[in-house]
Amino acid sequence: MSDIEADQGPKSTFPTYMAEGYQLYHEGLYKKAIESYSTALTLQPDDKNCLVARSKCYLKMGDTENALRDAEASLKEDKSFFKGLYQKAEALFTMGDFEFALVFYHRGHKLRPELQEFRLGIQKVQEAIENSVGSPSSVKLENKGDLSFFNKGEEVRNWRPVSVIHPLMGELKQQNQKTTRSERTTKQLLGELYSDKEYLEKLLKDEDLVKGKMRGGEKLQDLIINCITYLDTRTELWRQQKPIYARERDRKIMQQKWNKTRQSSISDPTRFVLKSLEEIDAALTAGNPDGSLKKAKEVMKTVEGWSEELVPNKKEVLGNLHSCIGNALIDLGEMDKARDHHQKDLELAAQCKLPDAKSRALDNIGRVYARIGKFEQATEIWEEKIPLVRCGLEKTWLFHEIGRCYLELERHTEARDYGCGSLDAADEIGDEKWQLNASVLVAQSEMKLGKFNSSVTHFERALDHAKVLRDNSAKDAIQKALHVARQHSTQ
Known about the structure:
Elements: H1 14-26, H2 30-43, H3 48-60, H4 64-74, H5 82-94, H6 98-111, H7 116-132, H8 169-178, H9 183-190, H10 194-205, H11 207-210, H12 220-233, H13 244-260, H14 269-285, H15 289-304, H16 314-331, H17 335-352, H18 355-371, H19 375-385, H20 392-408, H21 412-429, H22 432-448, H23 452-469, H24 472-489
Helix pairs in contact: 1-2, 1-3, 2-3, 3-4, 3-5, 4-5, 5-6, 5-7, 6-7, 6-12, 10-12, 13-14, 14-15, 14-16, 15-16, 16-17, 16-18, 17-18, 18-19, 19-20, 20-21, 20-22, 21-22, 22-23, 23-24
């Protein structure tokens, strides 16, 4: 508990008060937790994690104004701070500001599309809008209805931010003119998010609404346009970021191979390349795809000028750099260019007969196809990668992604089979999070196949994992789906 004294100030350290607040929060003692977090903030006033933590407490107590204030304060220095974006969306949703909440859930989903919490936020806002309002162009959203079902406070995991672009109206119009996709295809690619796109487009027609500004001064028109642009380009609805373990594996494998052929000269090219690759990956991980791309292109230009006598594995180095450039382009939304670079990586891997590089290239090409909604091509590429899988974690991730693609294609038997394969692999390595993900995939597939008893069983298992992980967002969504599955199973 907080122990500030008027004359002495805080008696303990910032981490101690943070830990105390965390414990009190999970015991449901929100007022006392706020005292601990407030004491911590006297020691580090701008700590954004502490501000988010206190905001969650305020939200639990129904003090939405202070909850929003702290969430916005956490974003003051870093507009792409993931926890702050999520908490701001949660506060706005609880206040009944559904259209504003939708904007920030979409912004978070664009920055970190593999996190399910933002997707669930979008879905619950959509449901709230459908239950609360009619045409958004003629009806103002009001603070009505019982929203207690949707209140959540669990934090979501670490992320890698991506730059957010706010295009002008003219740019959006120009982009739409270039789009040749039919409305039917757009519906297929966006799926459940298509209704969100329609809703945002209607909001954009409301001249009085779009002239307004957010509490932080941001123009609502810019935020809406940003979300529509994102939906037009259709990033994936689930985790498609190449797992960190895969990037680390690629780097370790390359380092092991190159250490065998290292030259002892003063200007060691191998040391230069390995150091450069670490810097390129660090920039991408830190949310700086522009910096990562620039560095990768500079290194590639240098390597291209080297002779194969100086660097016997020159093609392998170039393939890795093409992979780095492609990954940066994915984060920048330039999917066609990204695919070209990953395709070059694949070609070089074939020339050099490098199975690990081939696996990496297939992995990334599949990600590009999935992000633009070409699920058939994604499954073909990823299925070619299966014989090259090296570990259980990679297998459970790959099978899960293939299964999700088949679910999008409404090929529910294949989705169920790959979901089961993902679940088996997750069980073998004892990964709780992937056990949850795979169980949900199997449950969803079984429900589509009309096998409701099996669906109930897998949703129940997923719910157990969500409780162990303290993932309240997943728990709420699973409980809702489980209720529906149980209703069908008793009919």
